[in-house]
Design a protein that fits this description.
about 20% helix, about 30% strand, ten-stranded mixed β-sheet, alpha+beta, 15 helices
Length: about 850
Amino acid sequence: MVKATHLLCEYEENPVGVGTGKPAFSWRMEGEKDPVFQSSYQIVAALDETFNQLIWDTGRRFNGRSVCNVYDGGMPLKSATKYYWKVRLWDQDGEAGPFSAVHHFVTSLLSGGEEWEGAWITAESEADFFTSCGHYMKKEFDLPEGEIASAYLFASAHGIYEAAVNGIKAGDGILTPGWTEYQKRILFQMYDVKDLLKDKKNTICAHVGPGWYKGDLAGWIHLRGVYGHLTGFNAMLLIRYTDGRECRIVTDRSWQWRYSPAVYSEIYHGEIWDARLLSDENLHWASVKETGEPVDTLVPMDGVFVRRKETVSPKRLFYTPNGELVLDFGQNMVGWVKVRASGQAGDCVELSHGEVLDREGNFYTGNLREARQRVKYLLNGGETEVFEPHFTWQGFQYVRIDHYPGTPVLEDFTGVVIYSDLQQSGFFKCSDPLINRLEENIRWGMKGNFVDIPTDCPQRDERMGWTGDIQVFARTASYLMKTAPFFRKWLRDLQAAQLPDGGIPYVVPDILTHQDRDVRDADANHSASGWGDAAVVCPYTVYKYSGDRRFLEEAYPMMKRWVGYIENRAEDGVIWNSGYQYGDWLALDAGSGGRFGKTPNDLTATAYYAHSVELVRRAAVILGKEKDAEKYSGLSERIKKSFRKKFYDENGCLKAGTQTAHVLALAFDLAGDEFRQRTIDDLEALIDEWNGLSTGFLGTPHICHVLKENGRVDAAYRLLMKKEYPSWLYPVIKGATTIWEHWDSIRTDGSFWSDSMNSFNHYAYGCIGDWLYSTILGIDTSEEEPGYHESIVSPVPGGGITWAEGGCYTPYGLLEVKWSLDDGAFFLHVNVPANTKCRVCLPGTGETYAVGSGKHEFQCRMEREEM
């Protein structure tokens, strides 16, 4: 007998706030025998738990798909409505199982701003442009008598907000509404607040701070008020009674405001909280103003909440050589410090945050640039007080205690780790503890930089969505976490940010070209290879690892426009040799202190152009767009042919003598059969010449992959296992707990790379994570059946690693791999989730086995040179 478990609607269990009228449903399958496959399914949905008011009954559908089955009922879903659903399955023998447990989902306002009744309100005027304080805005109201059937609060802000009903915070998300392309789409959140309402008198209170909307951004060019000069709030409370009546409480002039204790709050700089204002009777409530801002850009939340995810206790409290009192949390993390203190009213706690100590052991903040990362708390006085910031966060391992009433002890401080609430997918461990620490560092780097958007770094005056960084990291991210709902939001902002000519800004949300409308509308230098290619690489990667083809359907127009943008600027439509390029950013061959690698820009740009065209071709095939597929197939071949003609000499050697040039030629199949062997041989020679890596952002993600795929896995392992600079393990040996921005962020003599750009938490070089999973563990998903409907397990041992274990929580369930190597005997255990199949490839033998779900054991012999 089979049954459906782990039911999800739009990637969540029992979600509130589903923002589409055609949600997708997924489940896992359990059975009493293996292998087991789903031959058919039936989904039933209704307005009631007893399923008397049916809205959708698929009947028995002969389909093995159990991931992202999209609602196609004849009855359109209604806004702010709770629906119940369940599913039953049939196995490959036609035996039916029972219906699953009943699950539910609640739709949001499906038409977004069209259904919105609240007005944008503010406590500020233009004179407050440079202020960075918080405001409370509230509405007191009496509810009509009657039994409430449902009550949902919809809320958004120009800035960052927290909303409470009768003193209880709505939901547990933070930094809402998140950062989007505000001019085109600003998210609103939906909260079930039925249980927070009282019979008569009620209060809704919003706390609003500047955030991304009004506050300081891009400190090196001193942007402020990028989206607007006034913070604001907008909300609608929709209450439905059992007798059919409705009541709406909306933001309007009847709301009141007062200053909050957040007398200063900025994302980069920190927060000053004066707790005395909580009880200051001199602060009176005044009437708000309506701003007249449009509501048609309001759309239902389509990402995931940022939440408090973990806590970290400080490991030690010590004095530096300079005599400063410092906390060491033992982990470079992102969030804030929850502090406990007691004292007199006005006593102060002040904390400064930094990532590392300098080589003398002193507290260091030089790499923060203009970001102050400082939190100050003024006590109200009386009993012990506990404080956490509201509208800011820090990247730190070390915290300097600048002021504290009394004598601080470790127990007074707790590190609160925040990041977007993504579920873990991958887990990894092997016989080498340094590689294990590397994997942990990559994971911590992802957590710290997946704070609503994929940022480049979480500490300095930047924290922006650089497209190149996430392009190189997207595959690793998809191994570590279930990233689909996170990418759904950001990719929609990427589409919204695409420029009229098809170009893609360097950062999304776009605060750089946004500053100059003439730049946005002109043929300007706003798009770079490897960065703009995120428009193609990211949606294709998310599709491949989630199995959700909606990513391709939605992104396909953007993907086409991006390669069209390049084609229009490329010489003869094939060699991209124009415009501003970052090239192989931060490659070591740039020289000491350099940022632009030596690989020619026209080579890197044309290589990535070829890669994007090939991915668009594949997307066209998947989506059944035959004419497009034919078009891009022809374009791909023309680019490859032209690439060889321009960048190779008559002897089959690349003219550019850099590692990245050779890596990209191999990774994107540009060398062709005739030049491939010479290219891989020359790449190995260049690695020997450099005694390791010299690649930057564009070459590093692919170097170990092309070595393995071309029979040089031993060379790839030598790069991975190297402990001396430059290498992935050099920072680990130096004590890093996240990934550095530079191979030598801390040099061998203990000095730092330039303060101007030296993050110690920057995930780009963490792109090696996908190699740990796809090569050491050997886990991947096939292109033909993405989302691990057909998985691949093909471990390739090496580097002296004698065992590895781990896996991925795929959309279908746990795919688990364990292997060990003992005196040439290789033992492999694979656990394949139900309703999937797996290709198992044994190392060094050429043997491949096709298996179904269940546990499988394999063994073979490996020769010494293969180990």
